[in-house]
Amino acid sequence: MHVVKLNDKELLRLKLMDAYENMHPKNVRYLCKLFGIHHSTFYRLKKQYNKRNLASLKYKSRKPKNIKTIDWNVVIEICDWKRNNPRKSQYYLYQSWIKEGRTPPCSPKTITTGGRGET
Predict the structure, then answer these.
(1) CB within 8 Å of 54: residues ≥ 6 apart
(2) Of 51, 65, 95, 103, whose CA is between 20 and 30 Å from 74?
């Protein structure tokens, strides 16, 4: 048997699901009003909930696990190229990388900013 440690929010979720299962007749809107949550939140939690696995009540982060980053040397190369070729577009650089046989590390739209967030 596994011991699952639940924090305050997760215990509230467990109490909510227990109250729902013991409620006769089932009135979701009333229950949600008592617990101070929106009914759509309740239905999402109900969908995730598994009686046999309390870990299903755990909070799941929505943050992406992997974020693609561009190598800093490539950012410097893009910035230098943009300074030396101010009249040429980012699509020109993108195509020149392809002609050289290099794999572009990013899309032409990303090249526009040079990785710095400014145009």
Answers:
(1) 4, 6, 14
(2) 65
DSSP for 37-56 reads --HHHHHHHHHH-BTTBGGG
**How many CA atoms does the CB half-sphere of 41 hold within 13 Å?**
11
* Predicted TM-score (pTM) of this structure: 0.53
In order of 13, 26, 27, 68, 87, the CA distances from 55 in angstroms are 11, 25, 26, 30, 57
- The predicted-structure confidence for 55-79, as pLDDT tens digits, reads as follows 888 888 888 888 878 888 888 888 8
